Amino acid sequence: QVPLVESGGGLVQAGGSLRLSCAASGRTFSFSTYNMGWFRQAPGKEREFVAAITWSGGNTAYAASVKGRFTISRDNAKNTVYLQMIGLKPEDTAVYYCSAGAAGAGWDFDSWGQGTQVTVSS
């Protein structure tokens, strides 16, 4: 398990932007050996995939609903992964979770943060 702490959520108007951050802490793991992902869960809905990035940052993947509006990136020197969100829509309102998975496990994630709330008003 990788300790993950998200930040950067908040209330924003439709069309606005936010940048989420997820910091990994602890001394017993190497952040750069983990693929990282962002998921979200809206009220009454199941958790859904948003974006992911490989351990090196060389490959990324996005849900169709956010492609072109969201960008995932990482800074291995800071043990941090980011989710830049632009053109936010009310349907982006959800709790956003950061996740981590071993580099050899593809997009299979087994560590989760506590989540950060993003609310987009119309």
Written overview of the protein:
It is a single chain. The strands form 2 sheets. Strands 2, 4, 5, 6, 9, 10 and 11 form a 7-stranded mixed β-sheet that branches. A 4-stranded antiparallel β-sheet has the order 1-3-8-7, with no helix packed on it. The N and C termini lie far apart (37 Å). The mean pLDDT is 94. The protein is mainly beta and 122 residues long. The protein is built from no helices and 11 strands. The radius of gyration is 14 Å and the shape is globular. Strand 5 (48-53) and strand 6 (60-62) form a beta hairpin.
Question: What's the arrangement of secondary structure elements?
Answer:
Layout: E1 4-7, E2 10-13, E3 18-24, E4 34-41, E5 48-53, E6 60-62, E7 70-75, E8 80-85, E9 94-102, E10 111-112, E11 116-121
Parallel strand pairs: 2-11
Antiparallel strand pairs: 1-3, 3-8, 4-5, 4-9, 5-6, 7-8, 9-10, 9-11
Give me the Rg, rounded: 14 Å
Main sheet overview: 7 strands, mixed
Low-confidence stretches: none
What is the succession of H and E elements?
Answer: EEEEEEEEEEE
β-strand amount? over 45%
Structural class: mainly beta
Measured distance between first and last alpha carbons: 37 Å
Broad shape:
globular
Mean pLDDT across all amino acids: 94
Task: Give descriptors for this structure.
122 residues, mainly beta, seven-stranded mixed β-sheet, four-stranded antiparallel β-sheet, 11 strands, 0% helix
Task: Describe the structure concisely for a colleague.
Helix content is 0%, strand content 50%. By secondary structure, it is an all-beta fold.
